[in-house]
């Protein structure tokens, strides 16, 4: 564990799904003794590639996997608020393409007409998803804790992005027809709290769209601790059953769950992968030398999409 003066920055937490305080250790903490509070907070950014350093536990009641102890929620929020991430937003054109396809597939499957519907994207980073949603016909807006990222989204896309985190009084009740959490719920210190807040913000029969990395996926099982989503920024690790239970507890009914395919530049994917698997760096250099770094690359590493409805 970290040095004694830093330990007070960490809190023991109960299971986020069932609130049980009983857990068993799955993996011990890997923090170096001399790490500073500033270094801890610097982990929390949109394109973080910091490998998992925290203690991982499994709930003895429901099997949910999560971090405990973890950094205090206020310190995590402070880290996200301060982050500047030009590397992340450079991939926005590819993200917008991915989101455009995803929105079309979701609305087609649900028989849903976006025109005139209000959508909120929570943790929208540089605004890629709200942009795609606006193009699809939604009245779209976002909320993002990073001052730099929220400002980037407003300036670049002229999209309504509020800087901050979602709290119960951030928006009036029954304000939205759709609320989305793209690669966000695993970062949130209190997922049940944010889900119940979302429930109150949705209009009757409103939809919640959630994308998350699934530790029950084939690729996660094959790669084990080398799976790229084992990161200190990810506080919670869901499988389909625990995700469904998390949503149902907050008053949602799952409509369907399916893999989510992401498109990014090939060079960017290799760059992120090389931080976790150093030998990939040689492949990244080779791809760059052949001018293929900007080529679109579609992949799935366990990312999973859940469409749920407010009961």
Q: Mean of residue pLDDT?
A: 90
Into how many domains do the coordinates divide? 2
Measured as a percent range, the helix fraction is: 25-40%
Number of strands: 15
CATH fold-level name of the largest domain? Rossmann fold
Major sheet: arrangement of strands: 8-7-6-9-10-15-12
Distance between the termini: 43 Å
Shape: globular
Number of helices: 12
Parts with pLDDT < 50 across at least 5 consecutive residues: none
Radius of gyration equals 19 Å
Q: Characterize the largest beta sheet: strand count, sense, and whether it forms a barrel.
A: 7 strands, mixed
The fraction of residues in strands falls at 15-25%
CATH class of the largest domain: Alpha Beta
| CATH fourth-tier homologous superfamily of the largest domain | Vaccinia Virus protein VP39
Derived from helix and strand composition plus strand pairing, the structural class reads alpha/beta
> What is the architecture of the largest domain at the second tier of CATH?
3-Layer(aba) Sandwich
Write the H/E string, N to C. HEEHEEEHHHEHEHEEHEHEHEEHHEE
Which structural traits does this protein have?
globular; 2 domains; alpha/beta; 311 residues; Rossmann fold; four-stranded antiparallel beta sheet; seven-stranded mixed beta sheet
Structural commentary:
This protein has 311 residues and is of the alpha/beta class. The protein folds into two domains: 4-82, no CATH class; 86-310, Vaccinia Virus protein VP39 (Rossmann fold), CATH 3.40.50.150. The chain has helices at 4-7, 37-42, 73-82, 86-89, 92-110, 128-136, 147-157, 191-201, 218-223, 240-249, 266-276, 280-289, and strands at 10-11, 23-27, 56-59, 65-67, 70-71, 118-122, 139-144, 160-163, 176-182, 202-213, 236-237, 252-259, 262-265, 296-299, 303-310. The strands form four sheets. A seven-stranded mixed beta sheet has the order 8-7-6-9-10-15-12, sandwiched between helices. Helix 7 (147-157) links the parallel strand 7 (139-144) and strand 8 (160-163). Helix 5 (92-110) crosses helix 6 (128-136) and helix 11 packs antiparallel against helix 12. The radius of gyration is 19 Å and the shape is globular.
